[in-house]
C-alpha cells in the first residue's frame, strides 16, 4: 500500500545511485564537454582574425553607426580603389579610411601615380 507520509527506499537514501557504467558515461560526457570548451578557448585566443588590423595591402575600416556599426574589408585592387576614393573625398568614411590605408601600405602617392 502506498503512503503519502512514509518515504520509499529510493527516496530515503537520497535518490537513485549511478552504477559503475553510469558513472563512467557521466565522466566521459563531462570530459568531452570540458575538452570542447578548452578547444574553443584556445582557437579563439590564437586563431587567425580575417578582419584584423590593416596590413599587407588589405584595408579594414570599422564605421560606427546608430545600430552598431559596419566593417569594410578590401584587399588588392579593391583596396587601392577604396583608398583612392578615400584620399579624393573628405567625408567621415574617408577620414576614417586614410589611416587604415596608410597602415596597409597604400599611400596617397601610390594610388595617384598608378
Q: Short summary of the structure?
A:
This protein is an alpha+beta fold. It has five helices and two strands; from the N terminus they run ααββααα.
Describe the structure.
There is one protein chain. The chain is of the alpha+beta class and 114 residues long. It folds into two domains: 17-46; 58-113, no CATH class. It has five helices and two strands, in the order ααββααα. The protein is elongated, with a radius of gyration of 30 Å. The mean pLDDT is 83.
Structural class: alpha+beta
**Unreliable segments of 5+ consecutive residues:** none
Backbone CA Rg = 30 Å
- In DSSP terms (H or I, runs of 4 or more residues), the helix count works out at 5
Distance N to C terminus: 95 Å
Please count the beta strands (DSSP E, at least 2 residues each).
2
Order of SSEs: HHEEHHH
Widest sheet: strand order?
A: 1-2
Count of all domains: 2
Summed over residues and divided by their number, the pLDDT gives a mean of: 83
Estimated share of beta-strand residues? 5-15%
Characterize the biggest β-sheet.
2 strands, antiparallel
Roughly what percent helix?
Answer: 40-55%
Produce the secondary structure layout:
Blueprint (H helix, E strand, L loop, with lengths): L8 H4 L7 H27 L11 E8 L2 E8 L1 H12 L3 H12 L4 H6 L1
Antiparallel strand pairs: 1-2
